[in-house]
Design goal:
- The chain has one domain: Spore Coat Polysaccharide Biosynthesis Protein SpsA, Chain A (Alpha-Beta Complex).
- The chain has seven helices and eleven strands.
- A seven-stranded mixed sheet has the order 5-4-1-6-10-7-11, with helices on both faces.
- Strand 2 and strand 3 form a beta hairpin.
Length: 235
């Protein structure tokens, strides 16, 4: 099975309140994006990587990320869109070679482990859609627009979704085409497109440490995790 990774990293990182987009902030002297890409570059099950970034940052990413860190599996750096789903769609359109499955992962989740990537890809051999998630630890309540609780969810069935997410290539392409044609705007992740298409989505276990870095507090926690795990992040 030929698997291409799409790494969307076209966000501006408003919540980070930094001078540069969050994907270019550094941990131990390396950009978050480079650390994330290295995880996929070193995975034997990945046949190529499409990196999606802001249009103005394409040259920078080619020179200071892809070439500098010898990320040989990056086959294209392409401009993203205004929303994450636009960027993922741009990544899909940039695939110009044979492909059976696509694995999509946030560019600012640098703590994804080789085991998580491998387990997700292996699961797609028997499924059409696979997501990584962890069981919810807290009680989850459904609230109406006025701020009142209308239901308490059974925590046993609640999972917090992460990335990577893996899909059959034809399925995810068709889903994005339909989303664009029918104006599916409020799509929080690619698995939601699969759900709307009536395609079953399989959950595999993620990790509490597979965090998405979007705020200064997340970056502080990432530094703590890095110190805790010593050089685990770069191995």
């Amino acid at each position: 099975m030929i698997t291409i990774a799409i790494i969307p990293a076209a966000g501006m990182g408003v919540r980070m309140n930094a001078k540069v987009p969050k994907q270019f902030l550094e941990l131990e002297g390396r950009p978050l994006l480079a650390i994330t890409l290295e995880k996929f570059n070193s995975c034997s099950l990945i046949d190529g990587i499409i990196l999606v970034v802001p249009a103005n940052d394409i040259d920078f990413c080619n020179k200071e990320i892809v070439q500098k860190y010898n990320l040989k599996k990056v086959i294209r750096v392409t401009p993203g869109g205004a929303r994450r789903q636009d960027s993922v769609r741009a990544g899909l359109m940039a695939i110009d070679r044979e492909c059976d499955s696509v694995i999509i992962h946030d560019g600012v989740r640098p703590f994804v482990s080789p085991e998580i990537i491998t387990n997700a890809i292996e699961a797609i051999r028997d499924e059409r859609a696979v997501i990584v998630a962890i069981p919810a630890k807290d009680t989850v309540k459904k609230v109406n627009t006025e701020g009142y609780v209308v239901d308490t969810c059974n925590r046993k069935f609640m999972w917090q979704v992460q990335t990577p997410q893996v899909f059959r290539f034809d399925d995810i392409c068709n889903a994005h085409k339909k989303a664009e044609a029918e104006g599916w705007d409020e799509v929080s992740d690619d698995a939601m497109l699969m759900e709307r298409m009536g395609i079953p989505v399989k959950v595999v276990h993620g990790s509490d440490e597979n965090i998405k870095i979007t705020t200064p507090q997340d970056l502080e926690y990432a530094e703590f995790l890095l110190e805790k795990n010593e050089n685990k992040l770069f191995n």
